[in-house]
Each structure stands twice: as C-alpha cells, then as structure tokens.
Write a structure and sequence with these properties.
This protein is an all-alpha fold and 329 residues long. The chain is 69% helix and 1% strand. It has a two-stranded antiparallel sheet with strand order 1-2. Helix 3 crosses helix 15 and helix 4 crosses helix 14.
Amino acid sequence: MTHAPATQARAKDAEPRHGPDTPPRPSDPKTRGRRENLAGYLFLSPWIAGFLLLTAGPMAASLYFAFTDYNLFDAPRWIGLDNFSEMFGDPRWRHSVRVTLWYVVVGTPVKLLVALGVALLLAQKRRGQAFYRAAFYAPSLIGASVSVAIVWKAIFSDDAIVDRTQKAFGVDVGGWTGDPDLVIYSLVALTVWQFGAPMVIFLAGLKQVPRELYEAADVDGAGRFRQFWNITLPMISPVLFFNVLLETIHSFQIFSSAYIVGGGAGGNACGPADGSMVYTCYLYVQGFENSRMGLASAMAWMLLVAVALVTAVLFRSQKRWVHYEEGGR
C-alpha cells in the first residue's frame, strides 16, 4: 500500500507530455492522406472549374448541337444525322477539304525542311551564332496573329513588294491574294516564314547526337550526305516525329491567316473564288455568317475525327522510321 503513490507518480511521468519543445504524436496516415488530397484538389479547383466550364461543357454542347438545327436565335431542334448528310453533299465543303489537305501536304513538309536546314546551319559553331538563332526564331514569337496576316496580305497584293519583284524579272501574274490559284501559296509562304519553333526543337535534337559517330564515319570515308542520312536522321527521328505531328495538327487548324489574307468579311471571306477556303474558314462562314451553328458543330466534330485519325496513322507509322534509344519505346 505504501508503494502505490510512488507507482502512480512514475506512471504519470511516463505518459507523453506535449510541451512547447515536444513534437506532437504523428496523426493517422489515412487522415494525413485525406488532408493532402484535399489540399491538392483545392489547388486544382481553378483548373478543374475552367476545364468544365470552358472546355468540357462547350464540347458536350457542340456534340448535341451537331445533331440539331440551331441558328443562335431559335431553340435547337433535333434532326439526327441531317447535318452530316448535308455536309457530305455540299460541293463547297468538299472544296474546303481539298484546300486544307493541299495546305497540310505541301505546307507542313516545306516548313519542316526549311526548319531542319536552318537548324543544321545554326548547329555549327560560328561567330554571331546567338544572334542568328534569335533572328530566325523571332517570326515565331509573333504567331499567326491578325496583324501579321494583314501585313502579309499587303505584301502579296497588287503592285506591292512581291508583285513588283515579279515584274522586275519579267513575270507579270499580279498580286497573289487576288488570284484564286495563287492565294494558297501566300498562306504556305506565311507558315514557312514562321519556322522558328520546329527549328529550335531540331537544334535540341542535333545537340544530342554523339560527335563520336561523325568521327567514326569520317574515318570510314563517309561523306556529308551519307552522314546526314545514316547518322543524323536516325538519331533525330524522335524529334522529327514530334515536329511532324505537331505541325500537321497546327496545319489543320489554320484560320486567321486564311480568313484575313483571303479577304476577310464582306462577302469575300476566305479568298477570291474560295481560293483560301480552308476547312475552319468554311466552318466559320456556316456558323457565324450563315448562323447555322448546328451544321458548324457537325463540321467541327468531323474535323476532330479527321485529326484523330491522322494522328493515329502517324503514331502507327513511327514503328518503321522512328528510332528510340535502348530503353525507350
């Protein structure tokens, strides 16, 4: 009986005390995990709200409108697949598809060839290298803005710089923007002029090619072209695939330059005689000039399907010509 108070005192001393210098007992891992998840969701909430309100919501609405007759002024009326049937039977829609495919097939390879050629030159050590890189990249900083399209239209119009240069060499074809057969070439020239972004990506890929491979090729007597074909291209093929994929998708999305260079509003949108009537431009005409939002939504989803198919084909083809390092795909 005499030892009971001493025993109780020692038990109290053994109990953990949370003083100012004593760390608190760690909480339950599940509770801590829930708190961390809650904090993460709170930080993500602005992005989630923006995605639902500005991306997912409009996409779901446009998918519904694609099967309706909707003109912005009356309530949408369900018509099923009539928009798609009308779209496939419209000769102007088929013309816009041909113009877009021509632009993608011609503009994208030329832009990438110019970007790769300039990247090969800038990869060599020379005086003023930083200045040249910045100068060649500068047009890409502007982007495909309306101001650039307006300037480009002025350059290729009648009696402008390009027209006067042609006449100086005895070629009199007039301004490109006024010719239905030449206006699309001005758009290709504009996209090729803005080759800075793929050029920088090519430069990064060229920096990763081991110099020992070129030294060994020199010893074996391989020339410049053979080194480029057998060493450079296989080593930068992942970068080349990335640029092809990105620029192809961008080419399908061309709009502002085609709309402005082709003529803009006022009954002459997208070029004289529809010379620059790319797909997105005709989509704009149907949706905002003709107030046929249902048909425009159907066209938008058809474009999404087409870009997805082209992307799938490119990914499928990479097994034949894209070479990854060991451990990669």
